[in-house]
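input
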Amino acid sequence: MLAGLKGTLQKVDLTDNVIWLDVNDVIYEIIVPQYSLHSFEALVDSDQCFIYTYYHVAERNPLPVIVGFLTEKERNFFKKFLAVPGFGPIKAVKMLSIPIEDIILLIENQDVEGLTKLQGVGQQIAKTIVAKLNGKLTDLIPEGYTISIDERDTISPVWNDAIDALIALDFNKRESERMIVNIRQLYPEVNTLEEILRLALEK
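output
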């Protein structure tokens, strides 16, 4: 299996979610997750760009498909996600419209409603994803993403105040909790209610 490619990133196609990687004068067209497109843009024309890859070819569709990732963790998550019935590599990569850390958090917290916001995921598919993967992704959760959005008693008062403020602004409870926990992990140095709410509303 093709596990990775190293070369010069020549092009990022924001419309089709593909990149062109020149490897020793052979140009590979690689499908990448939507959320990572801008990160790939920053690597255009850089030499020796390494991309973790998942290579797929099917008997009924012999045209090879190469899916690319910036980290090995993203690739490992993708391989596990393919275990969900009904997801081939193309459909799966199109579903990845938000970072995998956020998707893992949704799955581990059995947040079916949150998963339905992903492209091509309805209620039934979201329930299948949770049933298949819940509890099997703990090795991929980075430090800072281990707190459940339901464990409000483990969060300091200012973060709970921020959750209550968002609810008062007509955000639903679960969405507010998920947003604040995410901000808490991304910006642990923030310690005022005003700054937390500013970051939340920007998201």
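quick obs: The longest strand covers residues 4-13.
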